[in-house]
Amino acid sequence: MFKKAFLLIIIGLMSFSTIACQTTTTDVTTATTTSGSVALPDLTGMSQSEITTTLNNLGLTPKFYFDVSVSYDSEDDYDKFVMYGSDLVAGDVVASGTEVRVYTTPLNLTPVYYNDLAAYDSSLQLETSDYTGQEFIADGIGEVTVERYVDGDTTFFRSGGQTFSVRYLGIDTPESTALYEPWGKAAANYTKERLSTAETIVLQAEGDRMDGNGRYLAWVWYIPEGEDTFILLNLELVELAYSKDKVSSGSVYSAVLLQADWNASLTKRRVWGELDPNYDYSLDGTQMSIQYLMENFIEYVGLKVVITGEIVRKLGNGIYIQDENGYGVYMYMGYTTDAQLQVGVNVTISALVPTFYGGSPQLSSYYRTNLMVNDDDFVVVPEVITYDDFTFSLLGSLVTMEDLEVTSISYAATSSSESIHVEDSAGNTFVVRIDDSTGLSSESLGITVGSIITVTGPLGYYDYDYNNDPESYNWLAENFQLMIITSDDVTIE
């Protein structure tokens, strides 16, 4: 009898235990269980603040990380839950009080300072009375107009009949000309967008007036169209994460730039970690012939390409490379030097970025590690052309033009470069250029007004007013230039 009673008690306890376990399993999906565990909730569509509230209410602490492995195209994609870390998913059970890793997209950028600088410090806000009757070059402050856009932090302005280059103080946007970097083109486009519609633009100097490259240094203020308050573009570019703060501690704008920089860094937007959807992150790029590149150049601007050809000329910090089909392209080396890049050498170079300078197509972002010297070589025969053959796809190619009459010679104001103005037999006029890096001159070559010359050299292009928009730009024959690089490039009849 005692044994039977004891057995009934044991069976009863087992039944109670089973029911308790079933109850715990059911409750854990929605709330803390009796055992101190909690099921992770579905956070889809939630922002960081919403995630924090949701997890805190369950006795959990979020530790946030950012997913910058993909590009985001819409503002609606930012500040959104991506996934749990540590291989956890919604529904998994963790102990109450656990610190949970949570990945989100980068955060929204919320401007605080540039569009309401007076609220931060009214003494920093530019007023019309600050520059009335003054001129930038003479007085360090004054109204200007845009002459030409270069990139996100460099612009050519005009004041008092003088055109000059200005490097923006306190910032350093990614490169988008000789070198192509993530967010460089986006920063350049943003600067152009803001200034091209501005009601008024004012430059303000502070400290050193010029940098080591002969560019003026300035804070750039503008009044947006339809408004009446100046905005500091330098600060705006930092606050919108197009540039990091590079201002020195002695500037009156140091504190606000530092704060704007810190706030932007927390979002992981743009220069702080976000992938640029328009930048080519591939290591090598697309392999293609130079001919194909030149016939489809605009489609590859900002991407990366691999080209093969023979070096036909060296000019300053660059080389001209030509393929077997007679098509060439200029490659800008920047400050990189490489003894292997010599005339006559056949090379394959990867990860080059097509871009423009003054309307002239060129390849940039050269690194020695992307160079391969080939055993192959071929004889480059310059094509004899006339003015009517001036086409975009021939830019960078080695060509010959015959019977050109020199009508005048002009000299650059800031270098020893020369422009030899010539006229062909049909009355067309254009420029034969001698760059100062060649060490040549019309005098040393024996070229004078009235000379009849035949020139072999790369076909170049330059338009001071190039608008940095190849989709809308119209290449004009009058801006084509024939380059003299060696003394053997010209014959005088």
The mean pLDDT is 91
CATH class of the largest domain: Mainly Beta
- Strand fraction: 25-35%
Q: What ranges have pLDDT less than 50 throughout 5 or more consecutive residues?
A: 1-32
* Terminus-to-terminus distance: 133 Å
Structural class: alpha+beta
Count up the helices.
9
Provide the number of structural domains. 4
Please state the overall shape, judged from the principal axes of the Cα atoms.
Answer: flat
For this structure, the CATH topology of the largest domain is OB fold (Dihydrolipoamide Acetyltransferase, E2P)
Biggest pleated sheet? 5 strands, mixed, barrel
CATH architecture of the largest domain: Beta Barrel
Helix percentage: 10-25%
Number of strands: 25
User: Over the alpha carbons, how many angstroms does the gyration radius reach?
Assistant: 32 Å
What order do the strands of the largest sheet run in, or round the barrel if closed?
A: 6-7-8-10-9
